[in-house]
Amino acid sequence: MEILLFDQNTGGHHAEYAGRLLNSLSEFGIDADILASKDSRVSDFVMDSDIIWAKGESEQNLRQLFDTAFERKYDAVHILYLDDIIETIDSLKNPNIHSIPVIATLNGSFFNHFFLNEVNASVLHYGPSLSSAVPRGVGFSTALKEYYLQRIVREGKINNILVHSYEGKKYIEKFINSDLISPIPDPVKVIDHNISRKEARELIGVDEEGIQLLFFGELRKNKGVKFLLKSLRAYEGPRFRLLIAGSPADVERAELESLINSIHLPVVERLKYIEESQIPYYFLASDGVLIPYKQEFGSRRTSGVFQKACGYGRPVIASDFGVIGRQTKQYDAGPTFEPGSTPDLNKTIADFVKNENQMYDQQSLEEFGREHSFEQLSETLSKIYRTVR
User: Fold this and answer.
1) Where is 149: in which H helix or E strand?
2) H-type helices in 155-278, by residue range?
3) d(Cα 237, Cα 226) in Å, to the nearest integer?
4) Looking at the predicted structure, is the pLDDT value of residue 27 above 90?
5) Mean of the pLDDT values across residues 282-299?
6) Start and end of every Glycosyl transferase family domain (predicted)?
7) Average pLDDT over every residue of 282-308
8) Which residue ranges make up each domain of the chain?
9) How far is residue 299's CA from residue 219's CA, in Å, rounded to a whole number?
């Protein structure tokens, strides 16, 4: 069976996901290629012969995707990240989109917590024909995403929607037939580096001694980086070193540096994009991973940082809401705290620093990795590919 994968995004983790998935699918009898944007790093992970290079912007790339799938007679198309291109697909006029089964994954940003989106889902549940009344190409893709999604499914542009959580599936079921929605594992890259914590610290250039907690990933407001730093100004527990690694997104570098300078703890700041090859060492060098996400992050989406932490065998200190809170408790992956509560966050950190090894179960972390491996994902997808029409 031949599948054409597609991801409009070009970031390193998108490229790694696509590359690892493509290679893993082959173990289940799926021959996959990927259509990738010309500046994608996907060639770092797969052979060039498996890549078809896209030529332009979002709409042009989608046209190329469906034309290529039709001309080369692929059995199905799998859009790996639907979230940012729902409106574009809704507006797309291409007869080939209806000539081949299309599977699409909603990864995360679709599930950002916005009150209006909750209203949209309820309205569409009781008035399913209303999505037909929204004009195409009007914009407001964030505010109207439920309407656009329902319409592209009703019109047969998307035949099956994949989500990474049962919470996400339950939400989508409010306005889309549940038979068209399938939960799939959000895959974990299980540790494949046989190095010690000391060696990892040497590799990234941090002190070999002391407890180190990691905040990793794009520095965004909804991921709680400002909340964390402001909270730590009031921290009075045992000392630890904070390692912040990631590039500022919707927060100003100067503001972050000012907040860092205002806390009375040692901080190592790496406010930049971390190369894929270096990411394992940041986790392996740390004793725990901070996930102080705000509820605006979304209660139905998984966390890539949580996935990485479990894959590298590191416990988390996580906000207790949504998928993140559920998985942390379900797999005994570390302590949780009340979202947005400075006193509870600081108390939880202090308890962790004092009693690190008593606050999580290493075997449960490994179990999570096994249940959410690329092999598990590929096996699930291979079954979906063979049934979607």
Assistant:
1) helix 145-154
2) 166-172, 197-204, 225-232, 253-261
3) 19
4) yes
5) 96
6) 197-360
7) 95
8) 2-187+373-387, 197-370
9) 19
User: Which pLDDT score is estimated for 144?
Assistant: 81
Identify the CA nearest to 16 among candidates 277, 271, 259: 277
Task: Give the confidence band of 15 by pLDDT, cuts at 50, 70, 90.
Answer: confident
Laid out side by side, the sheet with 288-291 consists of 267-270, 241-245, 212-216, 288-291, 316-319, 336-337
| Averaged pLDDT, 337-341 | 98
Closest CA to 154 of 134, 179, 128, 182: 128
Half-sphere exposure (Cβ direction) of 7: Cα atoms closer than 13 Å: 25
Residue 39 has pLDDT above 80, yes or no: no
Asked if residue 255 has pLDDT above 70, the reply is yes
In angstroms, the Cα distances linking 353 to 161, 213, 291, 316, 357 are 42, 9, 15, 12, 9
Residue from 388, 322, 376 nearest 184 by CA: 376
What integer pLDDT is reported at residue 17 of this predicted model?
85
pLDDT tens-digit profile of 192-244?
A: 668 999 999 999 999 999 999 999 999 999 999 999 999 999 999 999 999 99
Per CATH, 2-187+373-387 and 197-370 having the same topology is answered: yes
Q: What pLDDT is recorded for position 125? A: 77
SS3 content of the chain, % helix, strand, coil (to 5): 50, 15, 35
- On whether the CB atoms of residues 124 and 147 are closer than 8 A, the answer is yes
156 conformational bin, left if phi > 0, alpha if psi -120 to 50, beta if neither: left
Q: Judge whether 51 and 23 are in contact, CB under 8 Å.
A: no
Check: CB of residue 355 under 8 Å from CB of residue 337: no
Could you tell me which residues come within 8 angstroms of residue 373 by beta carbon, excluding any fewer than 6 positions away?
A: 185, 187, 188, 190
The CATH superfamily of 2-187+373-387 is Glycogen Phosphorylase B; (3.40.50.2000)
DSSP at 188: B
pLDDT at 9: 73
| Fold classified for 197-370 | Rossmann fold (3.40.50)
What is the Rg, in whole angstroms, of the alpha carbon atoms belonging to the chain?
22
How many of the other CB atoms lie within 10 Å of CB of 121? 19
The label of the residue with tokens 């896209």 reads 54
